[in-house]
Specification:
heterodimer, A: mainly alpha, 0% strand, B: mainly alpha, elongated
């Protein structure tokens, strides 16, 4: 992050290509992360509820807390690194815009709430399933759009 | 921090995320030691001291490999923000970050002493994880003070 702040690199072609490449990697990660969670937690409301709470009709047991907590633990780590990379590039390129602070705050908050809501759904109430879906999809969507916006501003010439 | 006020936002959130990562990490460790089946946290801690859960070499490597990378990267990322600090001495940051790396290694490899039969008690794992967590919280506090 220190290097991204250095003004001397403002017109560096190498840095533009490096930032473009890491943004592409983050974009692919975001898509694959949604696919991964659809496998681990579920791809629709019914399957998510079956995973978290079990299903008496199909004799399905709820997911073990060890497995869910491991996914949540990994989610915190991956989200942190993905958002640190995206936000530091975004701040570098869009520091003069007024919405920049709101976007960064919203992104980090949704990214933080998503795994917390998943645990709350497991322990307390079904309502948190919906809150998890909203926060999870919103931070992925926002990060995806942010990546595209970053890409647009990068000067590859 | 010098002239990087906007970067305070992701750095501040990083501190919160790291607290969540450490908390879920401790919770996972206690679960692996039988937190679900025992009476509570204290009895799980006592059981770690007296008779830690046996782990095969495969299980040990499975946990150690990702943690070597993840903890190393996380300690580096958090500690490197101290380069910008104007409130805390670089020497202090250096000592804390080096201790953090040493106790991270000790924390990861302490279970190998149990796995390979050098130790019967899990006190070394408990001690190393406790010091590692306390040092990490200290480092987070130092970054927070420097913001």
């Amino acid at each position: 992050m220190k290097f991204l702040v250095t003004k001397d690199l403002a017109h560096s072609k190498l840095l533009a290509y490096l930032m473009g490449s890491v943004v592409i990697a983050v974009l692919i990660y975001l898509v694959l992360d949604v696919v991964l969670h659809s496998y681990v937690v579920g791809s629709d409301i019914a399957s998510i509820k079956s995973t978290l709470f079990g299903n008496t009709e199909t004799f399905e047991e709820p997911i073990l807390i060890d497995s869910l907590l491991l996914q949540v633990h990994i989610d915190f780590f991956m989200t942190l690194f993905a958002l640190l990379i995206l936000s530091s590039i975004y701040i570098r390129l869009y520091s003069k815009t007024s919405v920049m602070k709101v976007v960064v705050h919203t992104l980090f908050l949704f990214g933080l709430f998503a795994p917390v809501f998943l645990l709350m759904a497991y322990f307390w109430s079904e309502i948190f399933v919906y809150m998890w879906i909203v926060s999870f999809m919103l931070w992925h969507l926002m990060a995806f759009v942010l990546s595209l916006i970053i890409f647009k501003r990068l000067n590859f010439r | 921090m010098k002239n990087v006020s906007l970067y305070k936002i992701p750095i501040a959130y990083m501190l919160v995320y790291v607290v969540f990562i450490l908390s879920t990490g401790i919770w996972l460790f206690l679960l692996s030691q039988g937190l679900n089946s025992s009476d509570g946290v204290m009895s799980t801690i006592m059981s770690i001291v007296n008779s830690p859960e046996p782990k095969s070499v495969h299980n040990f490597i499975e946990v150690a490999a990702p943690h070597m990378f993840a903890i190393g990267a996380m300690v580096f990322v958090v500690s490197h923000f101290m380069l910008f600090s104007t409130k805390i001495l670089q020497k202090t940051s250096l000592i804390v970050s080096m201790l953090l790396f040493i106790f991270a290694l000790l924390n990861i490899f302490s279970y190998s002493a149990i796995t390979f039969g050098f130790l019967v008690s899990g006190w070394i794992k408990l001690l190393s994880i406790s010091i590692f967590i306390l040092l990490f919280l200290l480092m987070l506090l130092m970054v927070a003070v420097s913001l």
